[in-house]
Structures are given as structure tokens and as C-alpha cells.
Amino acid sequence: MPIRLDSASSDFEQSFVALLGGKREASQEVGDVVAAIIADVRTRGDDAVVELTNKFDHTHFTAADLRISPEEIDRASARVSDEVRAALQTAHDRVKAHHEKQLPTDHIYQDALGVTLGTRWTPVDAVGIYVPGGLATYPSTVIMGAVPAKLAGVGRIALAVPTPGGQISAVVLLAAKIAGVTEIYRIGGAQAIAALAYGTETVGRVDKIVGPGNAYVAAAKRQVFGQVGIDSIAGPSEVLVIADGSANPAWIAADLIAQAEHGGGAQSILVTTEKGLADAVEAEVDRQLSLLPRQDIAREGWDEFGAVITVASLDEAAALANRIASEHVELALDDPDVILPAIRHAGAIFLGHHTPEAIGDYVGGSNHVLPTARSARFASGLGVLDFMKRTSLLRCDPASLAALREAAVTLAEVEALDGHGRSISIRLNH
Amino acid sequence: MPIRLDSASSDFEQSFVALLGGKREASQEVGDVVAAIIADVRTRGDDAVVELTNKFDHTHFTAADLRISPEEIDRASARVSDEVRAALQTAHDRVKAHHEKQLPTDHIYQDALGVTLGTRWTPVDAVGIYVPGGLATYPSTVIMGAVPAKLAGVGRIALAVPTPGGQISAVVLLAAKIAGVTEIYRIGGAQAIAALAYGTETVGRVDKIVGPGNAYVAAAKRQVFGQVGIDSIAGPSEVLVIADGSANPAWIAADLIAQAEHGGGAQSILVTTEKGLADAVEAEVDRQLSLLPRQDIAREGWDEFGAVITVASLDEAAALANRIASEHVELALDDPDVILPAIRHAGAIFLGHHTPEAIGDYVGGSNHVLPTARSARFASGLGVLDFMKRTSLLRCDPASLAALREAAVTLAEVEALDGHGRSISIRLNH
């Protein structure tokens, strides 16, 4: 049974804070293990990566196996059905069309003093995209990572995907091909992150690593941050559905189940102004779960992490949504635009009764790599800007330098950096 | 003596790689110490912050002293000279005018299928800006952090500044007042980062922490990343000057000294096509250093970390610049625009003979919090976007959901997420 809260009850604040602070991942002490793996990969390169991969993924690879050959990619891709191929192409095309609009423009101008100021965007040279393997395969995540990188102008797009037991999804390989990935390595875990960050004989070093992963991958990303850029430290996925009496309980139940079936701590929360809807949704979740082929994970997730919260008004719902700062927020309302401006912290917002979160996972066009674990308070979903960086340009002529001299030299003196002031004055003393 | 390299010599590549990989900071094993400090602040709040502050900063504070009162800020501000006040105001106004142009615009549109897609930007609610104290005071860093935060619409802008021996710079307090800082805490080190990230009785919790700091601050930022956002893990400052025969050796020398006087591993590198200029600059650095009031730090930095590299062409200089990916790049050339497009990795570029890097530190208008330690390969200087986040909006109607159904359900099945597919189909089965 999910937790049930009512904002009118006297212990609500306490229960809500407990819900917010609840741990959804086993807090694993993996930092030391990961540090040792990174040190090993830096020292021994391919030898370490091969050993660790064979140990954790139960494979029998040599260094020559680490990078998947173009021939293997082509052979595997050819096995994918036309239906799946078309679906991947649709996802690719829609994600590309939307992300194209994120491309920034340079801006260079001269101000009234004659100083030229500019902002120039350039792509990162090489990026690594981590795609989890194992229980499930995620071709959609390949597209969500590679398409914005390609649009940004990244030259090398490397994919790391673990292949437990040596199995690799043909659909993942086809997705990589469609999305413009330039290299695919069958490696995972902290050893994959270390190899991408520092390079080995076989694995080309990249400048930035993005994508979700387990606790080892997250710890490794944290430790290599600085050596390379990273997108975020990802946690379990989550959805918050805000619904009023206009919502269809069966549809809401389906969305809550869709989130819970990710497992691994994924969380589904319903906030509603209608107690009747809350009851009906809970009953519907039970009913639909019993019809789901792989119901165990979803049921366990719903029972352990699910929550149903009744509130007095949509304003109250929006206030709670901002405190939860959920990765996904659904507004299951006839007129979602009314409360949209009040929801300030969310990775993505899905508006109206006909926008289930799952449509955004695949073919909506927006990115599905989104901030989790309340990080929508400060972070954004993956996009083109994650694969670019901004350089400032500044140009003075003698007149504008002279006009700025006094203020600059005064501040340099305050900061006891005389050499700074002198580097300005020396150009004007003549 | 700085290291001298010539790109034509047979061992150049080896020496250059050694220069790139050289450690400029004592590699301190501070991770465990910092973890203990963070845990202590989380557990004991103000008590821990007060104890740690008094221990490290040699003060005698109680919890009531941690936050600087508006009266103290006003009193201190009143003591600042009119000249310094005017210089701060100039810096503020120019930084504000430039950063205003970085404000993003929302973009919401409907595609051919009738799907509404949107990108909406909102400010972070509360940010913390760390400003180093101690040897020097940095009012300019207060402005560089707070102005873009204020422009972004951040409601709470908290400043943390350590006050060794209880001393605080009146200019820092005035800068904070001018820039719109809402709270100032006299705390530093890992305890300041922990207090901002988790909150204490006195220190308000923030959502993101930015600004430079020492090894303890950097380690603390790395450890709290996820709980809050951070800008980067900062290292020592650095400049790369690219000059040809048109450059004035005395001016270049002054710029190299200005960088070296930061100390703490700051690095100055000259890359030039003219051996004669290289010699003249080295001689000028010696001469000017002997005239600098506080020459010890600058001389030590130049001797230990400085480098002069002669190359055959400006193309070669640009290629080296991209490998160095320096925080600051000066193009001391008559026509810097010729090689500007070839310099892809740099925090900021200063163009022409009359744009010393120091002008950008104070009153150029661009930000001086820039990526260090080769991170310009993937990171940007501080700006308005660092204080905002992007939420995706998605809205389907029955027709567009129906149009996308097949591709989405197909991909959900490939990923073994049946519940995802069902959440789409259930809305269309009627």
C-alpha cells in the first residue's frame, strides 16, 4: 500500500517532510571501491578495463573486443524489425526537430565606451554517453544523449554500454547508428567512466560524460568531475501527477504504474483535490497491476514508494509540487495552464489529460534525461547546451581602456593586486 | 626561471605533455576530513559551524555572530571611500549591462502533428556564493557572483566569506549591498559549504553554491553536489598570451606578472612566433618584478609555473591553446580576428594589444569566474544561465497522441516497459 496523506491533517507537515527525505536507494558505500577502480584503470589501461569487465559482466573479452566493430553494428542493425526501425527513426526525427531549436547564437556587440563584448558558443570535442544495460535495454536513452550532442557539433560521440553475459541489444546498436554515435564500447560501471575520463589504449578519452547509471556509475562520475564535465548525479526516476475531478482514474493509475515499473526506487505520487479520485485511482492501480505481465517490480515500487496526497486546492498542490521538485509532473486537469505558472521546479511538465509521461520518454521530442531526486530545483534536462560551452570575448581600444582605467586600478589596489593595475596603466603611460 | 620550450625541438611533445599534466596544487587528501565536517554540520548545525569557524578562523563567535547584521553592513559600507564606491558601482553597472543580454527567452510552439512543445526558464530559489577571504579580499568576486543571480531572478542570494581573525573587508560588504546580496555569513571552508547545502538554525539552506575556494571548499562542493547544484571545482587561475612581433614586450610581461601574483599555483604562459619577443619578455618580467611592491608571490609563481613557448606559426599557437584550454587567453596581435575562430577552448579571450586580462577581472563587463585546469574544454564562465533551469513542456491532444501511439508503444515494448505502452493505449481505447 502506498502512503496516504491529507494536507488538512495535523501531522501532515511531519509526514510530508519524511516523504521528501525518504531514501529510495540503498545508500551504498561505494566511494572507496570506485576510487580503487579509477586508479586501476588510470594505471593499467585496457588490462584493467578488460579484467573488471569480465569480472562484473561475466564475459570473456580481450582488449580487441572492447570496441564494437562497424561490421558488428551493421550486422546487428540489419536484424531489427522494420517496425522498430521506423519507431526509432520517428523518435530520432522528433527529438532532433525539437532540440534544433535549442542551438544558441553568438552575440558580439560594441558598447557606448567602444568596448567590444561577445559571447561565443563552441561544441565540446568529444563526449561519452553512458547507457545502462543489464535487466533492460534503453535505445531511447541513446537517442536522447546522442542527438543533442550531434546537433551541438560534437565530433566524437562515444557510447559505453555494459553487456552482462556478453549480450548486447541490436536495437541499442541501431539507435546509436541512427543517432550518429561514432564509437561504441561494451563496458559499464565505474571502469567505463574511468576509461572515458582518462582514456586507455582502446578507449578514447572524452571531455564530458553524460547519462544515467547505477550507484557505482554515479560515484565514478562524481570522482572524475573536473577531469571531465558531467551532466548530473542521477537517482531513481519519479512522477508527480496533479489531478482534479476532471481526471480519469484509470488513466492516472496507468501513469503511476508506468513510473513504478522502472523499479530501483522509482516513485509515483498523486496529488489531488478530490478524495473520491484518490480512492478510485488506488483501486485502479490494484486492478491494472494484476493485468500487467511483469507486475512484481511495479507493485513493489508502488507499495514501497508510492504516495497519494489529498489537498484543499490546486494552489496547495502547486506548492507541494515545488517542494517535491519532481523529474516529471503531469497536470491531469481540463485547464492545466491555470496552475502551470505556479509550478516552478520540475524537470518536465506534461499538460492535460492526453499527455501521459511515457509519450515524453520516447517520441514527444523533448529530452527524457531529466533532473531527479529534487534536483529540478537547480538543474535542467539534457539538451544541446550541455554539449557546448561559452567563451567570453573582450576587446578594448586605447580610448575605452583609458575610460575604464581608474575604476579597474582602484579595485586592483583594494584587492592588493598591484600587478593587475600595472598591466592596465603600462598601456596608457606614454 | 620559467620553463622554455620550442615547438621545433625533438622533445617538445614530451615536454609539453609534462607541462599540461603538471600539478599546480598540493594534492591534499582532504576528502575524509571534509566528509567528517559535513556530517558534523548536518548533525549539530550551528554548534558545529561555530566550533569549526572559531577553530579555523581563530575567532570567538557565537551563533548570533554568524550572520552579519544589516546595521553592521551599513556601518562598514559608510567607511568606504567615494573613489572605491564609484569603482564598485562602475563594475556592477557594466557587469549587469553585459549579463542582461544572457537572459534566456521561453519558447513554446506547436508542431505539425499538433503537439505543443515548450522550453520554460525559471530562476533557482536560493543560491550561495562563496567568496574567499584571508590573504586578500575579493569584492569583485561578490559582484561577479551576485549580479547574474539577481538578474536571473534568484530570491535569496547568500554570501559566505571567511573572516580570519574576525576581520572582514568593508569593501566586500559594500559590494554585496550594491549587488543585491540578501544574506551574509562570516563562515568559510567546508563548514560554510555544508551549512549552505543543508542549512542550520542560522544559515538558510540554498539550492546551488557557486564561487571559487581552496582545496577544502572544492572537496566540499564535490561532496554536496546532488544535494545542491554547484558551478565547478575550481583550480588555480591561469593566462595564456599568444603574441607575435607586433606585441610590446613590457605589456606582455605585465600581464604575465598580473596572473602570477595570484599565487597558489597560478600559471602564466607565453606562446609566440618570435624568439626575440620571448627573450625580451623574459627580461622585462625580471625587471618589472623587481619594481612590484609585493613581488615574492609573483616571482615564485613565474619561476615555478611560468612557461615561454616559441612556435613556427600562429596556427601552431592556436593548436597548443586548444590543448591547454586556458581560463584566459590573450591575443596580443595586430589582427586577433585572424586566429580567433581557431581558438575553440578558452574561458575568455582578450583581443588586441589594449585588452589586458585584468580589465576583464574588474570592469570589462564579462564574468571573471571562469573555467580553470583545462575545464574550458567542457565548461563555461559563470553567467545568468547558471542561476536558472529549464523545464520542458509537452502537450498532446487525442489526435496527436494517436499519431504518436504506434512508435511509442513499439519502443516501450522493446524496453520491456509494458506499463509505459499501456498508459498511452488506455487513453485511445474507446
Helices and strands in order:
2 copies of one chain form a homodimer.
Chain A: E1 3-6, H1 12-21, H2 31-44, H3 46-57, H4 63-66, H5 70-78, H6 82-100, E2 107-110, E3 116-123, E4 126-130, H7 139-152, E5 156-160, H8 170-179, E6 183-185, H9 189-198, E7 208-210, H10 215-224, E8 229-230, E9 238-243, H11 249-260, E10 267-272, H12 275-291, H13 295-305, E11 307-310, H14 314-324, E12 328-332, E13 348-351, H15 357-362, E14 388-395, H16 398-414, H17 418-425
Parallel strand pairs in A: 1-11, 4-5, 4-7, 5-6, 7-8, 9-10, 9-12, 10-11, 12-13
Antiparallel strand pairs in A: 2-3, 3-14
**Distance N terminus to C terminus of chain A?**
81 Å
Structural domain tally of chain A: 3
What is the name of the CATH class of the largest domain in chain A? Alpha Beta
CATH superfamily of the largest domain in chain A: Nitrogenase molybdenum iron protein domain
Mean pLDDT of chain A: 95
Radius of gyration over C-alpha positions of chain A, nearest whole angstrom:
25 Å
Protein structure class of chain A: alpha/beta
